[in-house]
Recover the amino acids of this structure.
């Protein structure tokens, strides 16, 4: 099985090809571009295909990093991955950036319990814990910093990621200072090969609301006899988009 | 291809027709469509699927960009599948992919354009990055087979423009708003009066029971030779009038809406009347001189009636495509792609960027009031 992996969730924009049957990474293309993911992604995919000597038709599945990360970046990758999935009629799986962190830690240091922590950059942390065999032992969640410290106090496994120092309360750790964790594309592509498409849909994992509040206090006061808001108006003749 | 798709033959394609898949995600409608264009220039809409996000945005009284972008990415691939299925076709027989690349909300544009790029690359088809305004401008050729040049009035929540459509990719902007778009003025008036979103239908409905002469609202730029529009002063006047008599009764709301709509209609009449005069001079011997209206505000019947009468006065045909094709849709994007394909215009590279601001007329000078970032509407 050939897996095409796309990562646009952070500063990097990368594409990788993995031969899951042979367990071999065929090609990685891309770089830390900061911005311009939408412009560069298709070019990096072609570079990866060229250097692997494969055609796009040879891809059996697409894996994409779904976050947490940059909202816009995540959507660039997810939209492209789902477009490829539709046009090639191949499954698309979504892989969280927290699980790629945990996977890399296990690959580097062997089986152990891992807490993946990403700096949310607003005095908060994206956290998810994983058992020694790599399966998640908690759901990915966004924690305010003090609550995270309270909740994970006494955690016995390894703590990894850009938010690790913040969680530990190290003296020079300040939220937002650290660049977001780069996704390990090799971890992404291997997790992508293992994931069950039914259980890992390619949907953005924002873990944060859209930051919009209903605007109040804008309308003028209505008299008592006023009909209920939205009652008899709006006859459906049309709309102003 | 799935078994079901493989058994579906492209039975709807006629001799010599080209098929284009269109994708539209520039604001709060997620849309996909397949359109056919014959060698004689006759177009047919084979499918036109639109998912409106009105419910998601109504609590905010307007479109929230992040909410819109989130909704687009969840729905778009499913809508494209539905559009292909409804058209009875497959990506491998489609001739090109057309996706809106601007102007609009950047988060939504990115979703549609990236999906379009991936599909074009995987299916080996040319990609056309379409200007949303061009989609509106060319719709009348799909619905009414209009010949160039014709005049287009685009009035929506994001745009208010009077454009001379001279050819595919050849547009002359005659007038634009120097501040708010007309649809935005309707939405803000509705929001002020506690009417639901979107404001157009709500204000029109309330206006039916109101006295259009109770309030005298300003009619900005009326009498001026240039063909621009302005609606922010009107918005302020409506707010001040409402606050002066608050708390407002149902009758007050109806009267404000009726007076607001009258001011809008009179302003448009002056501006468009001048535009038609200029067009008539230029197109004195055109057998098929026409004014096309597009955008959601085209649904307003008071505005429609005024435009109809005005066109009759100037001896110009009034063309109003069906409301479904006046508001945002992907059929117009597919059609713009089909027109480009028919002229052998170059496809766009897969590195093409979305553009939140993208004037239809590249030569048009910025109008005072636009602010640093260029034309808002």
């Amino acid at each position: 099985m050939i897996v095409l992996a796309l990562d646009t969730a952070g500063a990097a924009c990368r594409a990788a090809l993995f031969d899951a049957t042979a367990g071999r990474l065929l090609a990685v293309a891309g770089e830390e571009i900061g911005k311009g993911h939408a412009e560069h992604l298709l070019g990096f995919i072609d570079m990866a295909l060229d250097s692997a000597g494969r055609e796009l038709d040879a891809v059996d599945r697409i894996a994409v990093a779904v976050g947490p990360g940059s909202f816009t970046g995540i959507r660039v990758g997810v939209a492209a991955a789902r477009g490829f999935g539709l046009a090639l009629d191949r499954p698309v799986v979504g892989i969280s950036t927290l699980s790629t962190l945990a996977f890399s830690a296990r690959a580097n240091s062997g089986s152990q319990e891992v807490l993946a922590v990403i700096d949310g950059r607003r005095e908060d942390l994206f956290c998810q814990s994983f058992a020694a065999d790599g399966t998640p032992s908690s759901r990915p969640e966004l924690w305010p910093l003090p609550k995270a410290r309270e909740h994970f106090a006494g955690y016995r496994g390894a703590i990894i990621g850009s938010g690790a120092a913040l969680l530990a309360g190290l003296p020079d750790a300040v939220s937002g200072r650290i660049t977001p964790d780069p996704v390990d594309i090799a971890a992404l592509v291997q997790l992508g090969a293992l994931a069950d498409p039914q259980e890992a849909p390619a949907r953005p994992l924002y873990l944060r609301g859209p930051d919009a509040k209903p605007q109040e206090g804008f309308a003028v006061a209505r008299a008592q006899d006023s009909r209920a808001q939205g009652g008899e108006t709006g006859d459906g003749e049309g709309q102003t988009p | 291809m799935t078994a079901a798709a493989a058994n579906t033959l492209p039975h709807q394609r006629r001799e010599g027709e080209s098929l284009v898949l269109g994708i539209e995600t520039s604001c709060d409608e997620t849309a996909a469509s397949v359109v056919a264009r014959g060698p004689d220039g006759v177009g047919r809409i084979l499918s036109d699927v639109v998912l409106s996000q009105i419910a998601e945005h109504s609590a905010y009284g307007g479109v929230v960009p992040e909410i819109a972008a989130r909704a687009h990415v969840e729905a778009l691939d499913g809508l494209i599948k539905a559009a292909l299925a409804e058209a009875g076709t497959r990506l491998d027989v489609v001739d090109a992919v057309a996706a809106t690349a601007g102007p609009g909300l950047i988060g939504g544009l990115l979703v549609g354009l990236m999906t379009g790029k991936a599909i074009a690359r995987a299916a080996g088809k040319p990609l056309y990055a379409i200007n949303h305004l061009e989609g509106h401008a060319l719709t009348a050729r799909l619905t009414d087979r209009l010949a160039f040049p014709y005049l287009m009035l685009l009035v929506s929540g994001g745009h208010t423009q009077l454009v001379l459509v001279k050819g595919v990719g050849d547009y002359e902007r005659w007038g634009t708003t120097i501040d708010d778009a007309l649809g935005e003025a309707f939405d803000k008036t509705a929001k002020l009066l506690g009417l639901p979103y979107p404001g157009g239908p709500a204000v029109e409905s309330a206006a039916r029971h109101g006295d259009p002469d109770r309030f005298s609202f300003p009619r900005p730029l009326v009498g001026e030779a240039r063909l621009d529009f302005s609606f922010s002063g009107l918005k302020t006047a409506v707010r001040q009038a409402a606050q002066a008599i608050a708390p407002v009764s149902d009758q007050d709301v109806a009267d404000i809406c009726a007076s607001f709509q009258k001011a809008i209609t009179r302003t448009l009449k002056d501006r468009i009347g001048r535009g038609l005069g200029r067009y008539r001079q230029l197109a004195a011997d055109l057998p098929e001189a026409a004014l096309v209206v597009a955008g959601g505000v085209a649904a307003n019947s008071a505005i429609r009636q005024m435009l109809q009468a005005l066109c009759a006065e100037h001896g110009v045909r009034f063309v109003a495509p069906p409301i479904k094709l006046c508001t945002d849709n992907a059929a117009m994007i597919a059609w713009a792609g089909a027109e480009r394909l028919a002229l052998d215009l170059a496809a766009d590279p897969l590195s093409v960027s979305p553009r939140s601001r993208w004037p239809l007329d590249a030569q048009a000078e910025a109008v005072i009031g636009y602010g640093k970032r260029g034309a808002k509407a």
Observations:
- The CA atoms of residues 153 and 162 of chain B lie 5 Å apart.
